[in-house]
Amino acid sequence: MLLAGVWQMPVAAAEVAKTAPTIAAAGPAEGILQVVMALVLVLLLIVGMGWLMRRVTAFSYGSGGAIRVLGGVPVGQRERAVLVQVGEQQLLLGVAPGRVQTLYVLPQPVSMGGVSTADSESFADRLSAVLKRGGRT
């Protein structure tokens, strides 16, 4: 019975081909349009995922958290000294790949008022300041 089915497959395929509607061959313009639409879809998907990840990250850290990074300075090729505020206490931390160590616990918090650090400025603020100066650094 299986052999009979195998022998009749070409006949069945020919019958289907006769009854199936004919599909016009797509020209080069339609092919390019499909590629462009697929590219736009992929780019929109990437932008959407980036937006979603930013929103999820904002929810996990929160803007009013108890821990804030006040500033940092590189002390080596991959090492940094970072000033962190936890509640009312400030800590100076040494940060290296795979290791974070407390270097010093400040007895009194360092006042950051009036001093504008580069980390606290947004990219948009810095870009507008550079554009106002005429592009000179």
Q: Quickly give the structural class.
A: alpha+beta
- Could you tell me the mean pLDDT? 77
Largest sheet: 4 strands, antiparallel
Radius of gyration: 31 Å
Q: How do you describe this structure in short?
A:
The chain has 137 residues and is of the alpha+beta class.
Keywords, separated by commas or semicolons:
four-stranded antiparallel sheet; 137 residues
Structure, explained:
The chain has 137 residues and is of the alpha+beta class. It folds into 2 domains: 53 residues; 66 residues, no CATH class. The protein has 3 helices and 4 strands; from the N terminus they run H-H-E-E-E-E-H. The chain has a 4-stranded antiparallel beta sheet with strand order 1-2-3-4, with no helix packed on it. The model has no long low-confidence stretch (mean pLDDT 77).
Topology:
Elements: H1 2-19, H2 28-61, E1 67-74, E2 80-86, E3 89-96, E4 99-106, H3 123-132
